[in-house]
């Protein structure tokens, strides 16, 4: 997914400003935690019917972009 911005929202008044899926109280971190824990996308979609495959792909694209921009500054 090249443009996650259509699906990932950041609202300071919701979920303490965490990146969320379409303004819902389901964060990118939640997606990553479930996937890292071994849940497949298909399992997530069955467990959380309000999510769409594009939401999960957008969460991964957002996380990848954040990682690309992360820099470690030497002390």
Automatic annotation (TrEMBL):
InterPro entries: DUF433 (IPR007367), Homeodomain-like_sf (IPR009057), WH-like_DNA-bd_sf (IPR036388). This is DUF433 domain-containing protein. It comes from Vineibacter terrae.
